[in-house]
Amino acid sequence: MCGVFGVHSVEREVARLAYFGLFALQHRGQESAGIAVSEGGRVTAVRDMGLVPQVFDEEKLAALPGEVAIGHTRYSTTGGARWSNAQPLVFHGAARTVALAHNGNLVDLGVLRDELLADGVRLDTSSDTEVIAALIAHDPSPLPDAVASAMRRVSGAYSVVAIAEGALVAFRDPLGIRPLSLGRIGDDWVVASETCALDLVGADVVRDVGPGEVLWIDGDGCHAAQAVPRGRSASCIFEHVYFARPDSLLDGTGVHAARVRMGERLAEEAPVEADLVMPIPDSGTPAAIGFAKRSGIPYEEGLIKNRYVGRTFIEPDQALRRQGIKLKFNPLAEIEGRRLAIVDDSIVRGNTMRALVEMLVGSGAAEVHVRISSPPVVSPCFYGIDMADEDELAAAHRSVEEMREHVGATSLHYLSLEGMQWATGLPEDAVCRACFTRSYPTAVPAERVAKHRFEAAALVRGG
Predict the structure, then answer these.
(1) Distance CA 320, CA 326 (A)
(2) How far, in Å, CA of 22 to CA of 4, rounded?
(3) Residue 147: which H helix or E strand, with range?
(4) In Å, how far are 1, 165, 227, 432 from 436, measured between CA atoms?
(5) What is the structure's pLDDT at 145?
(6) What pTM was estimated for this model as a whole?
(7) Nearest CA-CA partner of 388 in 313, 453, 304
(8) CA of 248: how far to CAs of 120, 256, 388, in Å?
(9) Is residue 78 within 8 Å of residue 445, measured between CB atoms?
(10) Among 175, 103, 109, which residue's Cα sits nearest to residue 442?
(11) N or C, where is the chain less crowded by C-beta within 10 Å?
(12) Rounded distance, CA 242 to CA 324, Å?
């Protein structure tokens, strides 16, 4: 996923605004965080492993004055979780210095890296972000033209914020796969992966950055150009299902409302005799609300989630690992003897759902009926979701009945593809549904793409 944020302001504390913008985007990446600023054209960046409040404090923010700031929260899809891959990356090229933060994933990265290396360009990381920065930094053309040229050379998903020549730059791939929105605070401009970040910093939502569009914001205001021809829209439908925060707007649609509609439609398609509807918090909650509303079955919180766990870097011992699901969830006594309809947004690898069902049955549930508010995930994503191996996807080669047996549920039903599409309010040709359909909006590699494929070369160069 990853979250990106950018702001241009002469009067406001841009690093502080970026910090709070990243706070709102923390759900999009927890591996690392960073902020880069430009003061009089001089770029300074602070980035490190960990969550936003772990990386930044008052002292660090005070040391980042400037008129432009960009920020990033990372969820890795190309390149490992290590410091050199944290963003924003700062690249000093022959034409300009570029600080850049990227959400997405390039699908032709090997060819581009080889071309740059053959031209004598040094690449110190194993991420695709550095390739985009290098293309812009070494292009002697005027900045908007350099960005447009880079966009013509890459393929895949990219929503980018950057600093170059004292300007804030934002651009998006011609299919608009990953979200990017433009907002305004008074006379100042802000861009962010999701509108929830604009809300937090007090910005009014202006519009989405268009597919294939580049914006550059400087002392003369906000300028826009169609850098590459716009393709057919292919915004990621999984953002509506899971990734985006419920209080965001995607493609003009409220995420929470869409997820509630998914639950309502699921109740129509897969009715169940149960005593209560229970969400898998937090991502399954809106759909569970809709399922309960439409089915008439009472909604109750049956699982308590420990919201302080996140991604743990301290492994439990073997005894604790066997009940590792309890690090995040613990059932309430009220489920004992009850027939449960548990609602979640998706099943990807299946391990969590299997452990949850086992835990609920072990805690006394009479029946556990699983309802999923999206279709089966059957195909890898090459556009910024870390599930690039079909063998990892539980439903890729299993029928629904085999999946029911796999997770140990009394019954299992998925929302239909048509029902999910209806709930978003978007036409079929406006979204990417490849993870559910195996139909991709761009050419993709014929073989599995390894996340760490450039790691060894970067380590040899000291990245």
Answers:
(1) 9
(2) 7
(3) helix 143-153
(4) 18, 42, 30, 9
(5) 98
(6) 0.92
(7) 453
(8) 43, 8, 26
(9) no
(10) 175
(11) C
(12) 22
- The pLDDT value recorded for residue 388 is 60
Q: What angle do CA 134, 136, 137 make, to 5 degrees?
A: 65
- How far is residue 377's CA from residue 387's CA, in Å, rounded to a whole number? 10
**Which of 236, 257, 243 shows the shortest CA–CA distance to 383?**
236
Which residue, among 291, 277, 269, has the nearest Cα to 341 in the 3D structure? 277
Which mean pLDDT values do the consecutive 10-residue runs of the chain (463 residues) have?
95 98 95 96 96 96 98 79 88 97 89 90 88 96 98 95 98 97 98 98 98 97 97 94 96 96 98 98 96 98 83 56 77 96 96 94 97 97 82 94 98 98 96 96 73 45 43
Helix %, strand %, coil % for the chain, to 5?
35, 25, 40
Q: Supply the DSSP symbol for 407.
A: H
In the residue annotation, 2 being an active-site residue is answered as yes
Angle at 374 between CA 368 and CA 375, to 5 degrees: 95
Please report the pLDDT score of residue 312 as a whole number. 47
Calculate the CA 456 to chain-centre distance: 26
- Per-residue model confidence (pLDDT) at position 52: 97
Annotated catalytic residue, options 2, 196, 236, 432: 2
Partners of 101 in the β-ladder: 161
The closest alpha carbon to 110, from 384, 445, 438, belongs to 445
Measured CA to CA in angstroms, residue 375 lies from 195, 242, 341, 347 at distances of: 26, 12, 17, 9
Residue 269: the pLDDT is 98
| DSSP code for 463 | -
Q: Which domains does the chain have, with CATH numbers?
A: 3-234+452-460 (3.60.20.10), 256-306+325-423 (3.40.50.2020)
**If you write DSSP's letter for every residue of 240-296 in order, what string do you get?**
IIIIS-TT-EETTEEHHHHHHHHHHHHHHHS----SEEEE-TTTTHHHHHHHHHHH-
Helix axes 417-424, 255-269, angle to 10 degrees: 150
Q: How many CB atoms lie within 10 A of CB 457?
A: 14
Length of the chain: 463
State how far the Cα of 144 lies from the Cα of 419, in Å rounded to an integer. 41
Supply φ then ψ for residue 265, to 5 degrees: -65, -40
Q: What is the DSSP letter of 395?
A: T
